[in-house]
Amino acid sequence: MSSFSRSAQQWATFARSWFLIDARMQPPGKIATMCSVRLQGKHKPIYHALSDCGDHVVVINTKHIAFSGNKWEQKVYSSHTGFPGGFKQVTAAQLHLKDPKAIVRLAVYGMLPRNLHRRTMMQRLHIFPEDELPDDIRANLTEELPQPREIPRKLSEYTQEEIDAFPRLWIPPEDYKMK
Amino acid sequence: MVFLTLSCWIRNRGPDRFWKVQELLKHHADLLSHFRGRKNRCYKLAVLAVRRAFVYATKSRKLKKRNMRTLWITRIAAATREHNMKYPILMHNLNKCSVQLNRRVISDIAITEPRTFLSLAKLARARQQEGFRAALGDGKEPSGVLSRVMLQ
């Protein structure tokens, strides 16, 4: 860092980076907190609300997002069309089928500060349901962020030796009838 | 009716009103130039706007101190997260090491002196580990290096 000129150092500090987050098997709330922190610029020591220090965030694989618990059936997204009798309530599963990007977009929108910068920050958020990215966005990416949740392995992904090495709690007797 | 003739209606008021008006507009021109609409030109509106501006200025002398402190805390938190640590851990452990740097100085260090800030973060981490060892251990291990506070 001491070898860079002052102007180059300043350019590097105030440059706008592009972050990539893979949302496969991740809870959308944790993805949204990471996005909102970086969109506001709160991950930088030079943060100020007026200095427009937010970065771009690209979220991929939002179609494969994973809510914990029973939220797919229990979480309700409400909206009103403005006309009488226009109160609509949709479960998370239905909304995800209709638009795979909406859950992450609404989560990030709710986590940003409620001021006029929110819309510009949402413009800097790019959500893609699958792995495909346009070439110009792929060329801009600078850093990939680690996933917040460790994906647990499926039973089919364990080798037979690991399954055998796992301690058995209880061995059923010979004439035990399993359901 | 007291004023029965035309000549009695004439009142001799102050001669300098115009100049007083101009004095206000010119005296606070630096303040008024940032106002919106007719408040920056017309006397009646400008008087009220200037008074309101002064009231806001007095009230916000206290708010400025609060806002600056939250800004310093936000900046320090951002810098500590870059080093895989959190703000409360850093401040608590720096307090325990009796490092009496205030938030203003630490946020300036975090911006302009990144390596000094890294050393502060490492100090806090080491003190945290010592605290864990003292709490979880059985007391047979000697108390740590950083826990022996010299200054009171």
From TrEMBL, chain A:
GO MF terms held by the record: mRNA binding; structural constituent of ribosome
Principal location class: mitochondrion
Localization of this protein: Mitochondrion
Keywords: Mitochondrion, Ribonucleoprotein, Ribosomal protein
A Pfam family: Ribosomal_L13
GO BP annotation list: negative regulation of translation; translation
Record's keyword annotation contains Mitochondrion: yes
GO CC, alphabetical: mitochondrial large ribosomal subunit
Record family assignment: Belongs to the universal ribosomal protein uL13 family.
This protein's name: Large ribosomal subunit protein uL13m
Species in which this protein is naturally found: Poecilia formosa
UniProtKB/TrEMBL annotation, chain B:
Superkingdom in the source lineage: Eukaryota
This protein's record includes keyword Ribonucleoprotein: yes
Pfam families, per the entry: Ribosomal_L20 (PF00453)
Protein name: Large ribosomal subunit protein bL20m
Organism name: Poecilia latipinna (sailfin molly)
Any one GO biological process: translation
Keyword Ribosomal protein attributed: yes
GO MF annotation, one: structural constituent of ribosome
UniProt cross-references to InterPro entries, sorted A to Z: Ribosomal_bL20, Ribosomal_protein_bL20_C
Family: Belongs to the bacterial ribosomal protein bL20 family.
Entry keyword set: Ribonucleoprotein, Ribosomal protein
A GO cellular component annotation in the UniProt record: ribosome
